[in-house]
Each structure stands twice: as C-alpha cells, then as structure tokens.
Specification:
This protein has 11 helices and 14 strands. It is α/β, with parallel strands linked by helices. It folds into 2 domains: 109 residues, Copper Amine Oxidase, Chain A, domain 1 (2-Layer Sandwich), CATH 3.30.457.10; 220 residues, Aminopeptidase (3-Layer(aba) Sandwich), CATH 3.40.630.40. Strand 7 and strand 8 form a beta hairpin.
Length: 343
C-alpha cells in the first residue's frame, strides 16, 4: 500500500508487542498440526520479510501487502484490518500461524477485494477559540468563536449521518485551552482531528479558504511537554509494556510519519473540495506549527473557512446556507479521505 498505509492501525498492532524477551510461546500443538508461515508463502509464491528487530512480518503479492507482528492477532491486508483466532508466534527461527491464517490472510492477499470499508471512524471536531477568547472579529462585528462553533455543530451532524463517531472539543461557548483540546483527542483515541477557524488580515481585500497541516518539528517541539503527556495518555489506554522504551519509540515514529503524510494529503483534498463547494478562493494547503497540529498524535488539519476581515466574506459567513455548505463540504471531504486513505 506504500504511502497509503494507515499507520494508526499498524500502531495499534505494534502495541501488542512486549519485547523479544517476552514474546508468547507457540501454542501447544502436535508438531504435524503446526502451520508455518514460510511454507504458506512458498506454496503461494508470496514474498515474505521478517524484521527480527521489530518482530514485524510483511507479505507481498502482486502489489498487495499484508503486515503483522509476532505476538499480535491483528493483520493488515493492504488497507483492511483482520483479526485472527490466535496471535502469530515465534518458534525458534520459524513463525507459527493459527489455522484461520490461510483463509483470512492468504486468500485476500491473492485476490484484490472489490469493497473496502472505511476504518477511520472516530473524528474529532475542534471549534476554535470560545468563551473569553472571541478569536478574530469581523469588520462588522461577527466573532470567529460563534461562526466556527455553528459550522462545527453542522459538521458533526453531517458526519454522524454518514456513520462516523464524532467528538467535539467544545459544543458550547466555552473557553478550552489548547492543551486540553489535544488531551481530549488522545483520551478519545480519535483517528482524525479537524480544527475549524476563521481568518483575519490587515489587508481587507484578502479572502478565501486555506488549510494548514503540520510542518517538520524542531528538536524542542518533538520533546514538548504536552506531546509527551498525550503519548502517556494514549499508551495507558493500550495493552503494551509500559517500560519498553524501544517499542514506544517505534510507535511514536510510525505515528508521526503517518500523521505528517496523511495530514498533507487530507489538507490538499479539503482545500480543493471546500473551494469548489463554496466558490471561495483556494489559498491552498500550507504547512504550519500550530499547537493543536503539533501536539495531536493523529492526522490533523486546521481549516480557515474564510476571512472575517473581508466585508464580503464576513457577510457570507453570517448566512446559514453558507455555513451549511462549508459543513457539508468538509463532511464529504472527510468521508472521501477516510475511504481512500484509511480503508
């Protein structure tokens, strides 16, 4: 699957690993009943790679890939998640697989599935500002916090109609710290984070939509206290060896690489889609280091729905019909992205 690999799912499977010294033993089966992965691959002309450091297993056939970890019952076939009856286990220099491995993994690997269900199901919608923080204020008094909350509520309704599980950082006119917004995302183990804002510029004629995704992090940002705290929150919710720093570093690397690439793809798509449905100027997808982009652990974008400093665009953002168009455009983008990138 290349860059389309949905690492958040791989991430969950990595967490099942507790280190080479504590890998589960092979189930007690008669020698003749054991099924060895190498034999299955040789029989079906499937390429097998086994990384003895990370204990990850990769199978490839005709451009399709299956991935798993020793000690985990979770397998990814291309972009689909599969649960086995038992985890993969290591026996000396061989990998023993459960009886349902061939039907659940090998067969799908040899046949490209026609239908794939989206796996990005948990979405967090973050309405910017709120409470004592009004955000940008338009030339005729429209406040950013009110516009983005209304759009966010509409977006949540539309996403739920499409079958997503949706959480909001704020559903009312409350002040929520940036730290708390990223903590909620970690606590809820969301798959995608979308922060809604409205823009402002001293030059009044500037208008349009623009989308931000995370730039490269500095050494200091990678070790930011909030980032470390959010990792701890997430790790505590998952089954893993809490003292295995090596596994944690692997998880962090996988998560960050997925976040950076997926966020870029998602931002590009939203910029195009939102500009099309609103007829607003497409100011493009841009890199930034905003706090909520830096410290959320999943693919995240920050959406600037328009410029309140532009009189014409402020007028549009006052209209319920325009806000609804923005919400539905975003919901459709999320649905398309989840099906294409996270399925």
């Amino acid at each position: 699957m290349g860059k389309k690999i949905y690492y958040c799912l791989v991430f969950v499977s990595v967490l099942c690993l507790t280190g080479c010294a504590t890998l589960p033993q092979a189930p007690k089966q008669p020698q003749e009943a054991r099924i060895y992965l190498e034999d299955l691959c040789e029989r079906n002309f499937i390429e097998l790679d086994w990384d003895t450091v990370t204990q990850s297993v990769s199978l490839r056939f005709s451009g399709i890939q299956a991935r798993g970890l020793i000690g985990s019952d979770l397998i990814l076939v291309d972009e689909r998640q599969i649960r086995l009856s038992q985890p993969l286990v290591r026996e000396d220099q061989a990998i023993v697989v459960p009886p349902d491995f061939e039907s659940k993994v090998i067969v799908p690997l040899l046949e490209i599935p026609e239908v794939q269900a989206p796996l990005m199901r948990r979405i967090m919608v973050d309405a910017g500002h709120g409470g004592r923080d009004p955000g940008a204020i338009g030339c005729h008094g429209l406040q950013e916090k009110d516009v983005v909350l209304d759009i966010s509520r509409r977006l949540v309704d539309s996403l739920r109609q499409k079958g997503f599980e949706v959480t909001m950082t704020r559903a009312t006119d409350d002040f929520i710290t940036l730290e708390r917004r990223t903590e909620i995302a970690a606590e809820q183990m969301v798959d995608l984070f979308v922060s809604i804002h409205a823009n402002s510029c001293p030059t009044r004629y500037v208008d349009g939509v623009e989308i931000y995704y995370l730039r490269d992090l500095t050494w200091e940002e990678q070790r930011e206290p909030q980032r470390k705290s959010n990792y701890s929150i997430l790790f505590d919710k998952l089954s893993m060896d809490k003292n295995n720093e090596k596994v944690q570093e692997i998880v962090k690397d996988l998560l960050f690489e997925n976040k950076r690439e997926a966020s870029r793809v998602f931002a590009d798509q939203v910029a195009q889609d939102l500009s099309r449905v609103t007829s607003a100027e497409n100011r493009g997808a841009r890199q930034a280091g905003y706090f909520v982009l830096r410290n959320t652990l999943v693919p995240a974008i920050l959406v600037e729905v328009g410029y309140l400093s532009n009189s014409r665009e402020e007028g549009l953002l006052r209209k319920n019909s325009y806000r609804q168009a923005i919400a539905e455009g975003l919901a459709n983008s999320i649905y398309s992205f989840a099906g294409r990138y996270g399925s």
